[in-house]
Specification:
The protein contains 12 helices and 5 strands. With 475 residues, the protein is mainly alpha-helical. A 3-stranded antiparallel beta sheet has the order 2-1-5. Strands 3-4 form a two-stranded antiparallel ribbon. A hairpin with a 2-residue loop joins β3 and β4. The model has no long low-confidence stretch (mean pLDDT 96). It binds fe (ii) ion (FE2) (2 copies).
């Protein structure tokens, strides 16, 4: 079960050939997917041979095989983690019952919505990142970008498989619609706002893969608890791919910081103007990018109080992060949780029923997790002997969803008046000038082992290859 059949048109470990109707439906979707990849996938890269990893099994050890492939020939397919024998539902109203191998009629609409919303983010990020290859800081980074892109494409396959197999005709229609929406397009945008923002430069890309792919991790972890077993199994395998995306982000930002600190020490200055003149990104600009990506991403968890979140949990569709490791009753009735709101011009905590606050619970778990990498970035600055620290802004800063939407809060968590916001916003969020400066650094470096001036080389290469390995052959 865990090994993947590559002899079929659609690689899979779900015995696809035994379900002719499904196989035919997916084989009809496949050319449309490839058409989408051609139109919206990495710009001008169709002919490159890229050193990519491909899944060969879903075992935790040794699932990946590395080799040069043209991206349109990448073997996208359907990989589920092995079924857990006699798996039981372990939270919500159905706790203790057998996990579902099929979609219960009464939850069909909600499950479809959850799967479509997750599925929509996958092609969206490929679209957001499609021009980045033209300004890559190195071959190594270019290869990592493409690896992330092909895996997001595979995540789309994962969700489309569920739609086709379990949702009949509406599932097939949703599968088509996933190829029709476009990130940032006015008349047919992607479903979630963060996936309609541009990823215009590589600092944004690294911030996105650190912060926004981590949102993906938390959503997938919550779905990996689902009572709908096929969803749990497919998201478990997606999570193994997601880890690399967050590594790309964390190490990318870390290398930008390392290079900046090196130049700060060489020039003995912390003056942003001098550092910019030397072609590196000053730390306050990095902080502003961090503030932007963090705040836009935590909005993705949804409104702090949500009856949908309660329903998804109680009906067993979506659990909490690490549901199985928690020691409460896994039903949460009568329990409460603190959310923030503004009262008399002050941010205050308010107790609300926990079931309604599950978006906030997941958001808070995410925030704890995302602080870890920021601390590791600070270690780089500390090691360079520079007295500057990056911080994660307060969770009420720059929010656009829920009770805090549009409320003016400083990064250190003070509710402030409009004029204080207006006076300071340019030091808190990236300005047009910041973005133009970062954009001005984005040249294209493709010689093996060479890196753009604004970023340090990685400590080691991919799959134990040297840093100057030919990760991409341009043909
Ligand atoms: Fe993904
Ligand atoms: Fe990802």
């Amino acid at each position: 079960m865990s090994s993947i059949n590559y002899s079929e048109k659609i690689p899979n470990n779900v015995n696809l050939s035994e379900d002719r109707t499904l196989q035919r439906a997916l084989e009809q979707w496949q050319p449309n997917y490839l058409q989408w990849w051609g139109d919206m996938g990495p710009d001008g890269s169709q002919d490159f041979d890229v050193y990519l990893r491909t899944a060969v099994s879903v075992d935790p050890q040794g699932w990946a095989q590395f080799g040069h492939v043209k991206m349109p020939d990448y073997r996208w397919g359907i990989f589920l983690n092995p079924a857990e024998k006699d798996r039981k539902i372990h939270f919500g109203d159905h706790k203790g019952e057998d996990a579902w191998q099929d979609v219960p009629g009464e939850y069909r609409a909600n499950l479809r919505r959850i799967i479509v919303t997750q599925g929509d983010t996958e092609p969206a990020s490929v679209e957001q990142q499609r021009h980045l290859g033209l300004t890559c800081p190195s071959q190594y980074d270019l290869r990592n970008l493409f690896q992330v892109n092909v895996e997001e494409g595979r995540h789309l396959w994962a969700m489309v498989y569920l739609l086709h197999k379990y949702f009949g005709r509406d599932g097939r229609e949703e599968g088509e619609a996933l190829l029709e929406r476009r990130s940032g397009q006015q008349d047919n945008p992607r479903i979630l706002q963060a996936f309609n923002e541009e990823t215009p430069d590589w600092l944004s890309f690294f911030m996105f893969t650190y912060f926004t792919d981590r949102d993906g991790k938390f959503q997938l972890c919550a779905l990996a608890e689902s009572s709908f077993d096929p969803l749990a199994r497919t998201t478990k395998f997606m999570l193994t791919e997601e880890a690399h995306h967050m590594f790309v982000g964390e190490s990318g930002v870390s290398r930008v910081i390392q290079r900046t600190c090196q130049v700060m020490n060489e020039l003995k200055t912390d003056d942003p103007a001098k550092l910019r003149a030397a072609g590196v990104i000053d730390l306050p600009t990095i902080q502003r990018y961090l503030n932007f990506h963090f705040s836009v991403t935590i909005d993705l968890f949804g409104a702090d109080q949500s009856s949908n979140a309660a329903t998804f949990y109680s009906t067993g569709l979506k659990g909490r992060y690490e549901e199985g490791k928690r020691t409460d009753d896994h039903q949460l009735r009568g329990q409460s949780y603190k959310v923030l709101e503004v009262q008399n011009g002050m941010l205050v905590e308010k107790e609300v029923p926990m079931l309604n606050a599950l978006n906030e619970v997941l958001r808070d778990d995410y925030i704890t997790d995302s602080k870890g990498g920021v601390e590791r970035w600070n270690k780089v600055i500390e090691k360079a002997g520079i007295p500057f620290r990056l911080t994660v802004p307060h969770k009420a800063f720059h929010r656009n969803i829920g009770a805090l939407a549009g409320v003016k809060v400083s990064p250190d968590g003070r509710h402030i008046h409009d004029h204080e916001w207006n006076q300071n916003v340019e030091s808190w969020l990236p300005t047009d000038e910041d973005r133009a400066f970062v954009a001005s650094l984005m040249g294209r470096v493709v010689e093996p082992g060479k890196f753009a001036n604004w970023i340090a080389p990685p400590v080691m290469g991919i799959n134990r290859q040297p840093v100057d390995f030919e990760y991409v052959r341009f043909n």
